[in-house]
TrEMBL record:
Domain of life: Eukaryota
Lineage, top ranks: Eukaryota, Metazoa, Chordata, Craniata, Vertebrata
Identification of the protein by name: CSN7A protein
GO biological process: COP9 signalosome assembly
A Gene Ontology cellular-component term: COP9 signalosome
Pfam families: CSN7a_helixI (PF18392), PCI (PF01399)
PROSITE patterns, per the entry: PCI
Family affiliation: Belongs to the CSN7/EIF3M family. CSN7 subfamily.
Biased composition annotated in UniProt, kind: Basic residues: 150-159
Length: 171
């Protein structure tokens, strides 16, 4: 077991370029909480007693492991990147297909509208009627096609005639 290493506050203040002891103590406390070092502050003797610290130097034996880990990480990044590029390509193809389909549908709707307009105009010309009147006739059913509607219309008319008779009698 190694003996704790004591570092005076003055050395730490100078090396870390801190302005006062308060900043130094705050930094040391944060380092202890982050498990960067283990030790204690000796405020009476103005020093830091270090029991353990994370090493910042790399041993030669670790270089191959670090290199392999970084290469694996780079390969993983490349796989993810190619997957993302493939998804973007698929999404763009799908978007183009949807736009083409939309344009095709809009074109078909426009053609149908033109066909309906031409057909309506031709039918109106054949019967020598106004095209607007022909459209109105197409929308309204011919008389006698729907008996329910016809009977409702006649009943309303009878009611109106009857009320007119009542009105005229009261005068």
């Amino acid at each position: 077991a190694a003996l704790p290493q004591c570092i005076p506050y003055a050395v730490l203040l100078e090396q870390l370029q801190l302005k006062n002891v308060r900043q130094l103590e705050d930094l040391v406390i944060e380092a202890v909480y982050a498990d960067v070092l283990r030790g204690s502050l000796d405020q009476r003797n103005q020093r830091l007693e270090v029991d353990y610290s994370i090493g910042r130097d790399i041993r030669r034996e670790e270089l191959s492991t670090i290199t392999r880990t970084l290469q694996e990480w780079c390969q993983g990044c490349e796989v993810v990147l190619s997957g993302i590029e493939e998804q973007v390509s698929r999404a763009n193809q799908h978007k183009e297909q949807q736009l083409a389909l939309k344009q095709q549908i809009e074109s078909e709707v426009a053609n149908l509208k033109k066909t309906i307009k031409v057909t309506t105009a031709a039918a109106a010309a054949a019967t020598s009627q106004d095209p607007e009147q022909h459209l109105t006739e197409l929308r309204e059913p011919a008389p006698g096609t729907n008996q329910r509607q016809a009977s409702k219309k006649t009943s309303k008319a009878k009611g109106l005639r009857g009320s007119a008779k009542i009105w005229s009698k009261s005068n």
